[in-house]
Write a structure and sequence with these properties.
single chain; 350 residues; alpha/beta; TIM Barrel; five-stranded parallel sheet; three-stranded parallel sheet; globular; decarboxylase
């Protein structure tokens, strides 16, 4: 089976000087220790220890070969978004990062597929940025799930999403910038609880605000981390929509009525969770995603899917087929696989 990982991060070898394109003092940069390890930095602050696969495409492809991954759709790390910066500097920064991503992927073009980032704090600049990036070779765009108080249903953001639909740019939404709370400061609870809540919040805002009614159906939208808490709490949201007019006032359909408007990755790490995810979303809307190469990611890409109760056709859909269609990767597949038809949920039985 071909294996395509759609949730994999890159931090190019960006120097402290390069980071000043975005900010004078606390921009994101990479400290390479020269021994295969390094540190993601924010100015003088150490953010996260990392290994060479994050910035070295040769090391990455070697690890992909060892892990049995054929293609990665790669995106920058959220630390690099720059949504709080001056728009002009953020736009220049995104152009710089996007070129770094193209250069990185050009070292292994049959294995690495780039997504761009954009200055989402300004709609016009973000639209111009994604247009340039798609023309240059990016297969889509990676965005955070909110910009300060603006969630995905905010008019400025839906305008950008509409532009992505017109451009044919797939949008990967990653949770980030979780609310600071003393209760989540220990045990990585901001990641374990906050990220799931952020994604759940964004999907519900798109549904309940009526934003899905305003955004073209052509938009190709993918949420990381299995859609966060959304699949598990969908019944609660639907029940609230049916029983309370203040919940359904802006949405003609319950949240479950919009399941055909987005996709999710498979980064849920548990067979019961994967089964629920597929039951809710359908086999045509779940894609392999690992959060590689970070420690909270899936250590054996695809192992969870292969061990599931899905039949071989369903496993193929999650491991590669859905990604091929969503990101337009037919040109990277062997000729014999390039004409694989689209699979519907009913065709891929468990």
């Amino acid at each position: 089976m071909t294996v395509i990982d759609v949730h994999a991060h890159v931090f190019p070898r960006i120097s402290r000087t390069d980071a000043r394109v975005l900010r004078d003092h606390d921009g994101p940069w990479l400290r390479d220790h020269g021994d295969g390890t390094g540190m993601m930095m924010a100015g003088d602050t150490e953010y996260r220890p990392v290994t060479a696969a994050l910035w070295d495409p040769a090391a990455r492809v070697a690890e992909m070969d060892a892990l049995g991954v054929d293609i990665q759709v790669v995106s920058s790390t959220p630390l690099m978004f720059g949504y709080d910066a001056d728009v002009a500097r953020a736009a220049a920064w995104c152009d710089y990062v996007n070129q770094q991503m193209l250069d990185y992927c050009a070292q292994a073009p049959n294995h690495l597929v780039p997504l761009c980032q954009v200055p989402l704090q300004d709609t016009e600049a973000a639209c111009e940025s994604v247009t340039r990036a798609v023309r240059a070779g990016h297969r889509g765009v990676h965005i955070g799930n909110h910009v300060g108080p603006r969630d995905l249903d905010h008019g400025a953001v839906t305008e950008f999403l509409t532009h992505c639909a017109i451009e044919g740019a797939t949008v990967l939404v990653h949770p980030w910038d979780m609310a600071h709370d003393p209760r989540t400061e220990e045990y990585m609870l901001a990641w374990l609880v906050g990220m799931s809540a952020e994604t759940h919040l964004s999907i519900l805002r798109l549904a309940l605000s009526g934003a899905f009614e305003r955004i073209p159906r052509e938009l190709k939208l993918l949420f990381a981390h299995g859609g966060g808490a959304f699949p598990y709490l969908l019944g609660r949201a639907d029940n609230a929509w049916r029983r309370r007019d203040i919940v359904r006032k802006d949405s003609p359909l319950p949240p479950s009525g919009y399941l055909d408007r987005f996709h999710v990755d498979s980064a849920v790490f548990d067979q019961h969770s994967l089964r629920l995810l597929v039951d809710v979303m359908g086999t045509d809307r779940v894609l392999l995603g690992t959060d590689y190469p970070f420690p909270l990611g899936e250590a054996e890409p695809g192992a969870l899917i292969r061990a599931s109760r899905l039949n071989p056709t369903g496993q193929n859909a999650l491991l590669a087929g859905n990604a091929v269609r969503l990101f337009g990767l037919q040109d990277l597949l062997p000729t014999t696989l390039q004409t694989t038809p689209a699979l519907s949920t009913t065709e891929v039985s468990r």
